[in-house]
Design a protein that fits this description.
heterodimer; A: 290 residues; alpha+beta; Uridine Diphospho-n-acetylenolpyruvylglucosamine Reductase, domain 2; Enolase-like, domain 1; 13 helices; B: 795 residues; Aldehyde Oxidoreductase, domain 3; Aldehyde Oxidoreductase, domain 4; 3 domains; seven-stranded mixed β-sheet; five-stranded mixed β-sheet; 28% helix
């Protein structure tokens, strides 16, 4: 497994990285290298330049406040998995990180790298969509926030513009009466999500105030099943109500992907089953969240 | 000293876990060139032109060669070492010149100053292809419109072979009360050894001697084939070394094209050369496993007596015949159809067909898991259909422990066993009665819980050489063993078998330490270097201990005899009165243990030769060549419990019980490790693994992103027991331990899954039993409103 030749840059700071990115049009940023390097070794990706941002200070770290959590783009999955701050403010994100790949992958792979790669079978995109998170991009003109539902444009395509670096992810903190859950059907070979389902539920006075259900792995980008909110809002979160809400899941999954392991039909079915299970668990967690 | 039978820690491990292993890819030599092979992207295509001009001009490229260059210099075709009657052996060049016959078929090779340059230059070789229709299905090779893949293989059928008593078989079926019919696919598997294949070669221009380092399970046969068939360098000028090898599972037995190309280039350009497979190359060039389509029938009496089986199999051999390929679906397959049972009417036939897929050859178990899958699926379905418990049906038909040696109707003579005892132990560990009542309870609440059983037999430790020859082998299957005692009393043990994970450096030292009564630490075990060891046959078929270990025991006996002669002379007694104390490592006159001569002193005396009996040669270096009298016959009782998620079709293995009889045990820890690894590997076939080709011969599962290997988290703790009935015909009383786990677990887990689905009326599904396949079957049941569908064959 040998890549084609490329120029390697290791900028000292973010500004230098952005300048290099603007200068080399087909350059790739190297973060944890867990998507880029395999693609380069298989010669699926042959960038002329690789800009290594792994050693730039200040791009990683988790900062929690009452309103939300900010996670630096260079934060590893292992750090997200083990963060005590996240366990308190947004445990579903730690839970999700803990299900990515294996220990070695989690020690190297980063949240920014995963999101910028926009693999339809990745785990974070689905969860961020359900949590209504923002993605922060930094370019020559400064920072801008991109809502998760605008960030994932297509297969391996994001809302990042040329010359922008994904520097931060901003996730709202779980409040009283809120709960979230991420469930995935792991591919037995790759461990990627054949189907990943993230559910967020907010309860108030025994009824659903808001429900957000996102599904990854089935279509080219993660999908928010908007009908679920419409169907559950104002209702007590009964088994029946959840099951009925999930009947609309297949309709939200246009052009499902299929491969040797799982057909589009099976993925759609799994999405429906996991949606019901994830919503049920999210409700149960919401009831416990003080 | 009592080493044999105890769980001595592996002496290899400190080196491996500290990263000090010396693998072929670690070898770096001055002026080395690095090779990359241009491979066909087509399953079947005529090669009309190969343009190497751009690649040759690429900076850092030393040379580019095609198959024609090899042919022009006299390189021979890749040999097939197993010839059944009337076999048509396709011509296989190390680099193909006329057609590509599978994706990955080698066409040209680049030698460059750096592996990266070689990889770039390979892309610059321009091959013009004329794509041809392909065939990948073993049973469709004779269909109308399917092209001839090799000119000399009519109807793409390389061989047909059958074995058994057809008359008795027909009689069993005509008198049967119940007949079970099954169509089964035993899917294509890819071995995926941890270490990819690699080859390094160094030509000595002055002495005209070649050294080849290769990731092989059997370097001596590779030297013979390189010498006599492909490269033509005389055996006495050719040294083949297989140093540390990171797993083989059968895939590293065979003589591969890269083993020819690499030394050929080293000699051609007079520079050391190195080729290391990428993981992607491994997927499309390592010989693969299994791939049978089978029509099987079992005849029974209404009381559950099994009276016969009748099996027809189409075995997919791939685009060429790999080195031992015809052996696997013939003499290693049909001979096992009697299973653990007394039935008389056993008959089987096989068609070895050529397709546009990677060649198929031995893969852990090699023919025997395929046989066990057929027989044990039939038995399980029979039990369901007769309303009998699957353990009871098996017990009813077991060969009794007093009936050994037992001659089967399919050529083999089983050496020893106690099948009731292994099932007693397995059902006791499982608490089988409770397992079944728990299952009933779970079923009554709608849960899909299944209990699977398998009782398997294996012929391991190949083989008596004369039998192998009669069955088609070009070589014998004896083994060599040298016990070389040095003047200081330190011992070097040379074995013709090869360790690529098995732990010979530990177990063979245990054996010899006990044979001579010396410390294990004084023994070094050497294997894998034809420059140091005598000719031998390497390791496969679970033969190392039974055959290689026995050769060493014979040599140790000779050492003891010689030491007794020296001691008798020095103690002025007769040899007949000498006692060799194997506990203490000393020799004394019967009745006078206080005046003993210790091993070290006698060893030195053998070399000083100052005081040896008249006519006795100096030195203490004994060689034996051991030809086994028979195979050994390990057997097993495995029980698995699974639960299926009815909504998703996912299978959860909840318990796994394995009781194996591998004869006497040298190192219980290593035997248990073999069983555990084997169970996981066999479960991989049952649930996850499959090499999938599309109709054009594209391998759709060509990377570890798609090809699912078993992972530790998918398993419960295995509950392992053991029954020991020693093999009566080898001096250690051992049977093979390397493959039984794999042979038994595939069908055991498949049976468990089918048992879980039985209440839904689902009779059979082909492996791998993936969630989608199970969900589809469950959904189909849900949609059945009128007729009860009883059969789900294929997919």
């Amino acid at each position: 497994m040998y890549s084609t030749s490329f120029d390697y840059y290791r900028p000292k700071n973010l500004k230098e990285a952005i300048t290099l990115l603007r200068k080399h049009k087909d350059a790739k940023l190297l973060a944890g290298g867990h998507s880029l390097i395999p693609a380069m070794k298989l010669r699926v990706s042959s960038p002329s330049a690789v800009i290594d941002i792994a050693r730039i200070r200040g791009l990683d770290g988790i900062k929690a406040s009452k309103s939300g959590v900010r996670i630096g783009g260079m934060t590893t999955h292992a750090a997200v998995e083990s963060s005590k701050d996240l366990h308190k403010t947004c445990p579903v994100l730690s839970e999700t990180a803990g299900h990515i790949g294996d220990i070695q992958v989690r020690n190297r792979g980063t949240i920014g790298g995963s999101l910028a790669h926009a693999d339809p079978a990745a785990d974070y995109p689905t969860v961020l969509l359900a949590l209504d998170a923002d993605i922060v991009a930094t370019g020559a003109k400064g920072k801008r926030k991109i809502p998760a539902d605008e960030f994932f444009v297509d297969l391996f395509t994001t809302g990042l513009k040329a010359g922008e670096v994904l520097t931060e992810v901003s996730v709202p903190a779980m409040k009283a009466g809120q709960g979230a859950c991420y469930l995935k059907h792991r591919h037995p070979a790759s461990s990627y999500a054949v189907v990943g389902v993230a559910a967020f539920v907010a309860l108030k006075n025994g009824v659903v105030k808001e429900a957000r259900l996102a599904i990854g792995g089935v279509t080219s980008t993660p999908v928010l099943v908007e009908s679920v909110d419409a169907s559950l809002a104002g209702q007590p979160p009964s088994t029946k109500a959840i099951s009925e809400a999930c009947e609309d899941v297949p309709a939200a999954l246009e052009y499902p992907l299929g491969d040797v392991y799982a057909s589009g039909e099976y993925r759609t079915h799994l999405a429906t089953v996991l949606s019901r299970r994830a919503l049920t668990e999210a409700v149960s967690r919401a009831k416990k969240q003080k | 000293m009592g080493y044999v039978g105890s769980s001595v820690k592996r002496v290899e491990d400190p080196r491996f876990i500290q990263g000090k292993g010396a693998y072929v890819a670690n070898i770096e030599l001055p002026k080395m060139v690095y090779l990359a092979v241009k491979r066909s992207p087509y399953g079947h295509a005529k090669i009309t032109k190969i343009n190497t001009k751009k690649a040759k001009a690429h900076p850092g490229v030393v040379a580019v060669f095609t198959g024609q260059d090899l042919i022009d210099s006299g390189v021979g075709v890749m040999p097939c070492g197993w010839n059944v009657p009337d076999i048509q052996i396709p011509v296989r060049q190390a680099l193909t010149v006329d057609k590509a016959r599978h994706v990955g078929d080698g066409i040209a090779v680049v030698a460059a100053e750096h592996p990266y340059i070689a990889a770039d230059a390979v892309e610059l070789i321009d091959v013009s292809y004329e794509p041809l229709p392909a065939v990948v299905d073993a049973r469709k090779t004779t269909d109308v419109g399917v092209p001839q893949i090799h000119d000399n293989v009519a109807e793409n059928t390389s061989f047909e072979w059958s074995l058994g008593d057809k008359e008795a078989c027909d009689k069993a079926f005509s008198e049967a009360d119940h007949i079970v019919d099954l169509e089964l696919t035993n899917q294509r598997l890819i071995a995926n050894a941890m270490e990819p294949r690699a080859c390094v070669a160094q030509w000595n221009h002055a002495t005209e001697e070649m050294t080849v380092w290769t990731t092989s399970q059997n370097p001596q046969p590779i030297r013979l084939l390189l010498s006599a068939f492909t490269l033509g360098i005389p055996e006495n000028r050719l040294r083949v070394i297989s140093p540390d090898v990171g797993g083989g599972f059968g895939s590293k037995i065979f003589h591969y094209p890269e083993e020819v190309i690499t030394p050929w280039i080293a000699r051609e350009i007079n520079r050391p050369a190195k080729w290391v497979a990428t993981r992607s190359e491994s997927s499309v060039t390592d010989s693969q496993g299994r791939d049978h389509i089978t029509l099987a029938r079992m005849a029974l009496k209404k009381d559950g007596e099994i009276s016969g089986v009748h099996v027809s199999t189409w075995a997919n051999m791939g685009g060429y015949l790999s080195t031992f390929a015809p052996l696997i679906p013939t003499a290693f397959y049909i001979t096992l159809f009697a299973g653990l049972y007394k039935m008389k009417g056993v008959w089987g036939e096989v068609f070895g067909t050529i397709t546009n897929t990677v060649p198929v050859d031995a893969y852990r178990g090699a023919g025997r898991p395929e046989a066990s899958y057929v027989i044990e699926r039939l038995v399980d379905v029979a039990a369901h259909e007769l309303g009998m418990d699957p353990v009871e049906l098996r017990r009813k038909n077991f060969i009794g422990k007093d009936e050994f040696p037992y001659q089967t109707p399919v050529a083999l003579q089983y050496d020893s066993g106690d099948y009731h005892a292994i099932f007693d132990k397995a059902t006791s560990i499982a608490n089988y009665t409770k397992m079944r009542s728990d299952q009933d309870e779970a079923r009554s609440s709608g849960r899909l819980v299944g209990v699977g059983v398998s009782g398997c037999i294996e012929a391991s430790g190949p083989a008596p050489s004369a039998v192998a020859g009669a069955l088609g082998s070009a070589v014998g299957f004896w083994e060599s063993g040298v016990v070389r005692v040095h003047p200081s009393g330190k011992v070097t043990v040379l074995t013709g078998s090869h360790s690529h994970g098995q732990g010979h450096e530990t177990t063979f030292a245990q054996i010899i330490a006990d044979e001579l009564g010396i410390d294990m630490g004084d023994i070094e075990v050497v294997h894998g270097d034809t420059g140091r060891i005598p000719f031998g046959m390497g390791t496969y078929g679970s033969r190392s201990a039974a055959v290689g270990g026995s050769a060493l025991v014979k040599s140790a006996e000779k050492v003891r005899e010689k030491l007794k002669k020296i001691a008798a002379h020095q103690l002025e007694a007769s040899v007949e009165d000498m006692v060799y104390d194997q506990k203490e490592g000393k020799v004394y006159v019967k009745g006078s243990p206080d005046k003993a001569k210790p091993f070290g002193e006698l060893a030195f005396a053998a070399y000083s030769a100052h005081n040896l009996p008249e006519g006795l040669e100096p030195g203490l270096d004994e060689t034996s060549f051991y030809d086994p009298a028979n195979f050994t016959f390990p057997n097993s009782a495995h029980i698995a419990q699974v639960e299926i998620d009815p909504e998703t079709g996912e299978v959860d293995i909840q318990r796994y019980i394995a009781v194996d009889d591998v004869g006497n045990v040298i190192n219980p820890m290593l035997v248990e490790a073999q069983i555990q690894g084997g169970i996981a590997q066999g479960a991989g076939q049952a649930l996850w693994e499959q090499g999938v080709y599309d109709e054009n011969g594209q391998l759709l599962t060509a990377s570890l992103m798609e090809y699912a290997m078993p992972r530790a988290h998918a398993f419960p703790r295995f509950e392992i027991g053991r029954v020991e009935t020693p093999s009566p015909h080898n001096p250690l009383g051992v049977k093979g331990a390397g493959e039984m786990g794999t042979i038994a677990s595939t069908v055991c887990i498949a049976n468990a899954v089918m048992d879980a689905l039985a209440p839904l009326g689902i009779r059979h599904l082909d492996m791998p039993l993936t969630p989608e396949k199970i969900w589809n079957a469950i959904s189909a049941v849900g949609q059945r409103t009128t007729a009860k569908v009883e059969y789900f064959g294929g997919d």
